[in-house]
Structure formats: C-alpha cells, structure tokens
Task: structure prediction
Amino acid sequence: MPERDDLLALVTDQRTNFLYTVAQLDDTQARARTTVSELTLGGLLKHLGLVQRSWLDVVDGTAPAKIDWADLDPDGNRMTEAEELPRLLEAFHTAAAAFDRTVREADLDREVTLPVYPWSPPEPVVWAVRRVLWHIFREIAHHSGHADIIREALDGASTTLKMKEAASGEK
Result:
C-alpha cells in the first residue's frame, strides 16, 4: 500500500474511533467535566478541529510566523455555552477533509518552518510535511485516549465496545 494510503488509513481509523467517543451526546454532556481535568468531549472535538486546521496552515504557508500568548484563544480547548456540538462536528469534518486533501496532494518531503510559540525552542524548527501530518495523527490519537476516559466517566460508554460492534456489524 502506498505511503499516502497508509497515512490516510491510519488517521481515518483514529478519527473514527474518536468520533465513536463523542457520538450520541447532547450539548450538556459534551460540555461536562467528568474528571479533575478541565477537558471535556466538546472541548476535545473543538481542539482537534482547530489543530488540524492550524497545522495545515503551516503546510500551506498561511500560518503566522510567531504566535504569542495573547494570540491564543483561551476557549480554544473548551466548548463554550454559545457553541453547539453539531457545529463543532462540522468544523472537525471540514478540517479532516482538508487534511486528507493535503495528504493526497502535498510533497511529503517539502520542509516547512513551524511558527514560534511561547514554548518553542529558541532556534527555528523545520519539519517535513510528512512529520506535520504524523503530528496531527498523534494529536488525534493522544486526545482520543483522553476522550475515552471522559466518556466512560460520563455515562459508562466504551469506545472499545463501539469499535468491536462496528467491526463485527453489531448494534
């Protein structure tokens, strides 16, 4: 299987598993904190949509060169009272489609300079597009684990059980 197909298959699988975790929730459940963390399912969904979009801005050269603390959205990782889960899902799917286009079309060996964040090292950081795409995959996988714990604490739902049901055609 060509590399691009592998990348897409892996990230699609990880996205699907994450979406099982946020399925069949209402806005109140999506905003609920179920652990000592401030993370919520709606906040993670929002974050993963924004992460995919912002890293793709790096790939296409439209990201700012420097991002200071004041430039960061304090609500970028949380679902506000004004936000609705269907809109966050739509933004996530839009970002996912853009990500998939990039995987299919970008020169994976092309190097890009990452924006400078307050936590960045002092020297410029340069990654191949391939590494950016792997980083996005890692972000989805990383936060899928958080989401699974939050969902299980919320209502006992199991992402692993949903994955099993999907694989076997059960309901």
Observations:
- The mean pLDDT is 94.
- The first strand starts at residue 111 and ends at 113.
- The beta strands are 111-113, 126-128.
- Residues 27 and 85 are 6 Å apart (CA to CA).
